[in-house]
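Loading example: each entry is read as two labelled lines plus one structure line.
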Amino acid sequence: MTSGFSVSGYGPDRVGLSKLLARDSVVRRLDWPLLVSALALSLIGTVLVYSATRNRTELNQGDPYFFLTRHAMNTGIGVALMIGMLWIGHRALRTALPVLYGLSVFLMLLVLTPMGATINGARSWLVIAGFSLQPSEFVKITVILGMAMLLAARVDAGDRTYPDHRTVAQALALAVVPIVIIMLMPDLGTVMVLAVIILGVLLGSGASNRWVLGLLGAGAGGAVAVWQLGVLDEYQINRFAAFANPALDPAGVGYNTNQARIAIGSGGLTGTGLFQGSQTTGQFVPEQQTDFVFTVAGEELGFLGAGLIILLFGVVLWRACRIARATTELYSTIVAAGIIAWFAFQTFQNIGMALGIMPVSGLPLPFVSYGGTAMFAVWMAIGLLQSIKIQRPLSA
Amino acid sequence: MTNIPETGRTPRVQIRLIMIQILVLSLLLTLGGRLWYLQIRNGDEYASEASGNHVQRVVTPAVRGSILDARGVPLADNETRLVVSASRTDLMKMRDDGDAVLTRLAEVLGMKPKDVADKVRLCNAETPQPCWNGSPYQPIPITDEATPKQALQIRERAEDFPGITAEPTAVRRYTAPGKANTAQVLGYLSPVTDDEIQAAKDSESPYLRSDQVGRSGLERTYDKQLRGKAGVTAYEVDKLGRVMDQTQSDPARPGSNVVTSIDAHVQRVAEYELNQAMKLARTQTDKITGRKYEADSGAVVVMESKTGRVVAMASAPDYDPNAWVGGISGKDYAKLTGEKSNNPLLNRAIQGQAAPGSIFKVVSASAAVRAGYPFNGRYNCSSSYSLGGQSFANFESKGYGPISLGRALEVSCNTVFYALGHKEWQRDGGIKPKKGANDWFYKTARDFGLGAETGIDLPNEVTGRIPDRQWKKDYWQANKDAWCKQGKRRGDYAERIAYENCLEGNRLRAGDSVNYAIGQGDILVTPIQMATAYAAISNGGTLYDPTVGKAVISPDGKKITEIKPTSHGKLPIGAKTIKQLNGALRDVATQGTASWRFGGWPHDKIPMHAKTGTAQVYGKQTTSWLATYTKDFTVVMTISQAGTGSGASGPAVRNIYNAMYGLDENGKQSLKKALLPKPQKKLPKIDSDGSIHAPKVRPYEPLKEEDPVDDPAGEEEVFTAGPPGFGGSPGVGGSPGVGGLGGAPGGAPPAGLPPAGAPVTGRQP
């Protein structure tokens, strides 16, 4: 194994427009199914967000297209960020990582200051000059990259086959810092995503089974501790109660899940038709443009439309898995594995809660839900995956 | 592109990546499976839930059909009134359960705060009226007599009156045309109960929460036809209740009109004359008790003889049925049901029962003929009849010698029927009946429709009773303990009777059969039963089911469903006997006990038939009965504690006939003045726009007030209670209902009254 992951020769200068259509050009080597699926999800998201908000005058400030344009804009910025990632390359990010990691953690700390804003019980927003950011979304990326850097360094250098315990401990320490901050917000959903990301990273790194099992044990223990110590807010306990018993208080704590299930269930095979859903136009499902966006698809597009969304996620995750398995260096593998864990968990959690098989937590559906930071983060992740894809053959 | 690692990467990572891939795939499959389950497998269920979610139903109540008289005059219709209602649901959300709002409302409406609060409380076993008996989710009417000014105040100060509405609403109106009240026949409405909604849920005509349901009288019998169907408009609304779309509209269908055979004019005359007769009776002194007559209650039935249709039916005391409209007030309810009220809610024409006295003799005469005694045989009308050493007197001990049964009816000779009843009793085995005893007198009574409901189309008719051997047994079983406890061999009258009853009250004694033969003792009949029976004699023998409803006509007048007369049997006597009875009853009116009341009557033009009756009631004054008929009409009147049949009821019945036939005092007929010289055959016409063609109702102008006239001596039979020791005394010691027409013994109380533990009738044990 060579140490051919040197970044020399992979600078931004290589990606010139003139070479775009060359036989071995970046454009040709891109993972197009991945890109098209992600793009399709974002576009479907635009339509769904529009349907959910076009007559919510209290939200859209009188402009039915308010959320549509925002969502499309976010997608555009997201695609630009993807191209930026591609241009920089996932390897080059390694050098900048300490700064990026530090920056993301710093932004999260800012959230805890008066600059932060609380939405839906979690203080996870940062409002700067009228724009609201969710730094925890970026942390997902920096944690993946940071852990990957630490865990792969000695393996990719050819020193070891697997990361040693010390390295694993360091990597975990790196992840624990933002987790603690997020717990303070508290944003339980993101904590869970990060925990799953750590699991994916450890699995992908080839770290000892003991670490993997230990992490699972710690996760279970943590969950029990959280439950027992009563750190959960009442609304969080109610969400679990409503999940455990779908018939619970349909006008109160069970309202959200109940209405979501009604919306999806009433869609049938082909749905009520776009903009025709009574649950959606009647605004019976709260947070329908963000966390419960899947219910719009379920009601208005039916099994075919909602199924298509799941299928598109399937394509995204399938391509990501291919990329993870095909790359030769551990760093890339770990990054891809972390992203897969992230996407897979967040998708399953979000759609699962809309379908009533997961408890409610405020996690957006990647690409589809309305929300700038989350959109930027997932497209950056797509950029990382594409970067891994196009660099693979050259590193062989 | 291959999955085999190109580098020396370890299989562990590779295996784990495949694990991740499998895990991801299974997660996605789980989502897909769940999606299929929700949308395809259970989709329908959720679709209906979704539609229930966002559909608001607005109910427009159906306008209730009118109840019309035979010519189309509305007896019950609807009018628009300003109704102020309170939503209990809204009030209960307030910290003080809406007390402040209700107090303010009481002030605006000029009512007592307590009265308002009482109206919105829910009925239960402990809550007396007034209370709300309908659904707690439905606005509760506080008053339906709000003035426009009050309504405006409530609307303009909506913030002071949360949960209170003031809306124009169609409410029931009992019009009392020409003062024809018809209260008990019409009945009344009250809000539907939850139980009724449940019970009728899957029927053809389910109830709505806002429905009013007929509780009594015609309103109840024809409730289904009158009610119509409420309109439902479904609006699609969003979460905040804003209307997005009108999805479906099911317009209200007004109820059908019920045409009755009641003639408002005749009804008015009947009510007026009944009340006059009672008033007059109260001025008369009862020679037996030495007190003025009580005349506490009475009833009159005017019936078409050939169809059984009821032309007029009055029951006194009566009440204003409008008291029930919009929820009855506490004061009104107490007035209608209190101890002093004497149960004005009872329709005594079908729910009052009393011993018939001598008007029963047509049954006894028929029974005698069936038992083989020739109608024109000779029967000794002695001044008294001796039985076991005791003497049963004829009225004022007058004897007529040997006379026919017809003459016995004409002069109402008791002793003839005593003897016949006694003889038959002996033939049947006396105190120890033979197997297969004929019991002609009892059987014939049943064959005349007595002891059973006539089947009139009004609810809660009572049966009366025929005190035959079986009844005696049952009655003794039920009462022997009390009798034996009370009875004393040498006590006062009541105690001696109880003593006797205790010993042998289970047997039909000689005295029982003797009393029974003249319609005394334990026998009870209702005015409607006697009207049906006398109508049958007049029409050749058919016992018609009396009907008040004549036709049901759709609101647009197009669909007419006639209610045809039906019969429940034939009289058990041949045409010859009927003819003989007819002759005898005619003689009663022309030369017998009723003739002094029909002086000047044009007997040749309008043959009048009559039978008087004066029934003794233990501890009370006598019940007056008068059963009469012409070719077309039968009129039966009874007044409790009012003296003799002809004395108390005679002028009233005569006046009713006078008004119907347009006769003056001297019997001169003026068809122009006649209210109903012939039964009304044609149905009123209803236009397609719902308007009804009806004549104007003229108020009744009675002929000049008559001065009370003393009964001529020997006018008729008055049964004087036989000496103790002969059993047949009117049911002492717990025999219910013999107290004249006072109660509804054995019958149900007017149904549908609020289950508030406030029995309206004061039903006797």
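Chain A touches chain B through 56 residues (CB under 8 Å).
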